[in-house]
Design goal:
By secondary structure, the protein is an alpha/beta fold. The protein folds into 2 domains: about 1-155 and about 300-345, 3-Layer(aba) Sandwich (Isopropylmalate Dehydrogenase), CATH 3.40.718; about 160-295, Isopropylmalate Dehydrogenase (3-Layer(aba) Sandwich), CATH 3.40.718.10. It is about 40% helix and about 15% strand. The protein has helices at about 20-30, 45-55, 70-75, 100-115, 130-135, 140-155, 180-185, 190-205, 230-245, 260-265, 275-285, 320-345, and strands spanning about 10-15, 40-45, 60-65, 80, 120-125, 160-165, 170, 210-215, 250-255, 270-275, 290-295, 300-305. Strands 3-4-2-1-5-12-11-6-7-10-8-9 form a 12-stranded mixed beta sheet, with helices on both faces. Helix 4 (about 100-115) crosses helix 6 and helix 8 (about 190-205) crosses helix 9.
């Protein structure tokens, strides 16, 4: 009797080859049984991964294959979908000639998910400076993914960054801008739209039927009635009222210094924060090694380990794969929720 089709793998774009991304991918495969890592297929250069495994004395056989063969290959070898030509960089020594390969890995990974050959995309860290030198015109990974999503769907996409760990999920409304520019960048409509995307994806991709959103203030004491700034009352509070009128369980604005302790975290499923560090400091403090970067608002699932390229330890065998393993497991779990939601006709 047939056991049915093999499960779709998670596609993994190799990222910056000179960073620790390839190493944590190798370690994630080595930990596949003890850590219950879901099947994945690496979009990248098989020879580079073989060379790195040999350098680190890792027993990782590499099996070049198509995405549809990954689940079968995964048990005994690291499945790799060979993309592009040989890489030129070395661990700790990035090469600008690899930039085109890095973007091709991402583009191919998106294509695998959008065409139903992979369940989700997990991306290894990229080196934006090397990409910029080669003409990359996006602020980062997220914006590039948004453009690729729009090209596939023909619709406008608003990517939203979420940092998700076992004890806390946070979302910054403004991301990579100077702190001095945050007040002017905030708007009632922007806070509301970000929150809508978070509420929707918590339901469809995390299986939370009635998401609760805690919305932070911007200023100390959430402005203290205007004594410490007017943005909390004039911009943030109207967004919360708008969301509540739409049936979304949002509350605040809450002073940021009182919303992240253990008792406060029990009251919500995600914290909507006004700027980058307000969101990232608490989640990284609580769960640095197992926090995952998740992009919401895309027509596909994307996760990433919450660390950079770490050139200083690349190729040494010291890289911790915990965040990559968490990213792979979260991607597969989100895909399963999305599949159930789709099956229910939502």
């Amino acid at each position: 009797m047939s056991s049915g089709p093999a499960p779709l793998p998670v596609a993994v774009s190799l990222g910056e080859p000179a960073g620790i991304g390839p190493e944590v991918v190798l370690k994630a495969w080595l930990a596949r049984r003890e850590a219950n890592v879901p099947p994945f297929v690496v979009v990248g250069d098989a020879a580079y991964l073989e060379h790195l495994a040999s350098r680190l004395a890792f027993e990782v056989p590499v099996g070049q294959c198509e995405a549809g063969q990954a689940a079968e290959v995964f048990a005994n070898a690291l499945p790799v979908l060979q993309t592009g030509s040989a890489l030129k960089g070395e661990p700790g020594k990035p090469h600008t000639g690899d930039a085109a390969h890095v973007t091709d890995y991402i583009r191919t990974g998106v294509d695998l998910v959008m065409t139903g050959r992979a369940s989700a995309l997990a991306t290894a860290p990229i080196n934006k400076l090397a990409l910029y030198a080669a003409g990359f015109r996006h602020p980062g990974h997220t914006e590039f993914l948004g453009e690729l999503a729009e090209a596939h769907t023909g619709r406008n996409v608003l990517p939203v960054m979420m940092l998700a760990g076992p004890q806390l999920r946070t979302v910054p409304v403004t991301v990579h801008i100077a702190l001095s520019k945050v007040p002017a960048a905030l708007s009632t409509s922007g806070i509301a739209e970000t929150s809508r995307i978070v509420a929707r994806d918590l339901r469809t991709r995390f299986g939370i039927n009635a998401p609760r959103l805690a919305v932070s203030g911007l200023n100390p004491h959430a402005g203290e009635g205007g004594a410490m700034g007017s943005e909390d009352d004039e911009i943030i509070r109207p967004a919360i009222e708008m969301l509540r009128e739409e049936g979304i369980d949002a509350f605040g604005p809450i002073p940021a210094d009182t919303m992240f302790h253990a008792a406060a975290r029990k009251r919500y499923d995600a914290a909507i924060c006004m700027y980058h560090d307000q969101a990232l400091i608490p989640v990284k403090t609580i769960g640095f090694d197992d926090t995952v970067n998740v992009t919401l608002g895309l027509p596909f699932i994307r996760t990433s380990p919450d660390h950079g390229t770490a050139f200083d330890i690349a190729g040494t065998g010291k890289a911790n794969p915990a965040s990559m393993i968490a990213a792979l497991k979260m991607a597969a779990e989100m895909a399963s929720h999305a599949g159930r939601e789709s099956g229910n006709g939502a």
